[in-house]
């Protein structure tokens, strides 16, 4: 596999290996995964707990280092980046939606959404305007000043999605985004993410074992024992 920039792929993995040390034992998490994801795709990394899907998501997002192989994001090889360069990549190119929301508890919904833009150096007036717009877009108009503890689980996840989307990243990585939601809120969140994917062309990569999420995505990569078992 050649480095990015040769085709339409926004993410490429070539023979990626990741092993974790547990005491004296080395536990393989990824066993030479190779894949290519085109710009604008809505993809699920499906698999049981421990299959390696979250590890793969973390490799793509530059949150963890792989042992061997290579990952390219928008043509840039992650193995050649230092920690500062990986942080810049995440800030400028990637939005994250975590299972546990990862909202800052002392900040309001609006302030949580503004946080990434503040790191990016966006002016305060523009941050305020953009945060109100995106919170309205995810159905939270009028709740901008509420703290996370004053929001339901579904509402907190909507804030997390708004935070991921507000800076128009090239890629959104979501790790079990519906795990803490009931079926109604899960369906609403998935519908919103699918609409935003179509409207903005943002690439969505979702790690999940939820059949409802898997059915919603247009491409399914089944991860089993650290390898791609199916791609359909």
UniProtKB/TrEMBL annotation:
<dbReference type="InterPro" id="IPR017871">
    <property type="entry name" value="ABC_transporter-like_CS"/>
</dbReference>
<dbReference type="GO" id="GO:0016887">
    <property type="term" value="F:ATP hydrolysis activity"/>
</dbReference>
<dbReference type="GO" id="GO:0022857">
    <property type="term" value="F:transmembrane transporter activity"/>
</dbReference>
<comment type="similarity">
    <text>Belongs to the ABC transporter superfamily. Macrolide exporter (TC 3.A.1.122) family.</text>
</comment>
<dbReference type="InterPro" id="IPR003439">
    <property type="entry name" value="ABC_transporter-like_ATP-bd"/>
</dbReference>
<dbReference type="GO" id="GO:0005886">
    <property type="term" value="C:plasma membrane"/>
</dbReference>
<dbReference type="InterPro" id="IPR015854">
    <property type="entry name" value="ABC_transpr_LolD-like"/>
</dbReference>
<dbReference type="InterPro" id="IPR003593">
    <property type="entry name" value="AAA+_ATPase"/>
</dbReference>
<keyword id="KW-0067">ATP-binding</keyword>
<dbReference type="InterPro" id="IPR027417">
    <property type="entry name" value="P-loop_NTPase"/>
</dbReference>
<feature type="domain" description="ABC transporter">
    <location>
        <begin position="11"/>
        <end position="232"/>
    </location>
</feature>
<dbReference type="Pfam" id="PF00005">
    <property type="entry name" value="ABC_tran"/>
</dbReference>
<dbReference type="GO" id="GO:1902495">
    <property type="term" value="C:transmembrane transporter complex"/>
</dbReference>
<keyword id="KW-0813">Transport</keyword>
<keyword id="KW-0547">Nucleotide-binding</keyword>
<protein>
    <submittedName>
        <fullName>ABC transporter ATP-binding protein</fullName>
    </submittedName>
</protein>
<dbReference type="InterPro" id="IPR017911">
    <property type="entry name" value="MacB-like_ATP-bd"/>
</dbReference>
<dbReference type="GO" id="GO:0005524">
    <property type="term" value="F:ATP binding"/>
</dbReference>
């Amino acid at each position: 596999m050649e480095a990015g920039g040769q085709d339409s792929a926004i993410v490429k993995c070539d023979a990626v290996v990741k092993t974790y040390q547990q005491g004296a034992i080395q536990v393989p998490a990824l066993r030479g995964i190779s894949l290519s994801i085109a710009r604008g795709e809505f993809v699920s990394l499906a698999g049981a707990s421990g299959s390696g899907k979250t590890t793969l998501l973390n490799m793509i997002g530059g949150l963890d280092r792989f042992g061997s192989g290579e990952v390219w994001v928008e043509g840039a090889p992650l193995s050649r980046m230092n920690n500062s360069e990986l942080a810049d990549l995440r800030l400028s190119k990637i939005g994250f939606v975590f299972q546990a929301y990862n909202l800052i508890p002392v900040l309001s919904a609006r302030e949580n959404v503004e946080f990434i833009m503040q790191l990016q150096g966006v002016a305060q007036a523009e941050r305020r305007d953009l945060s109100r717009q995106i919170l309205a877009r995810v159905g939270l108009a009028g709740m901008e000043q509420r703290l996370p503890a004053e929001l339901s689980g579904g509402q907190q996840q909507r804030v997390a999605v708004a935070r991921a989307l507000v800076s128009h990243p090239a890629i959104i990585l979501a790790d079990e985004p519906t795990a803490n939601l009931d079926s109604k809120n899960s369906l609403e969140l998935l519908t919103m993410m699918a609409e935003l994917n179509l409207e903005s062309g943002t690439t969505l990569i979702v790690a999940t074992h939820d059949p409802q999420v898997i059915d919603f995505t247009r491409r399914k990569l089944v991860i089993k024992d650290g390898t791609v078992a199916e791609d359909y």
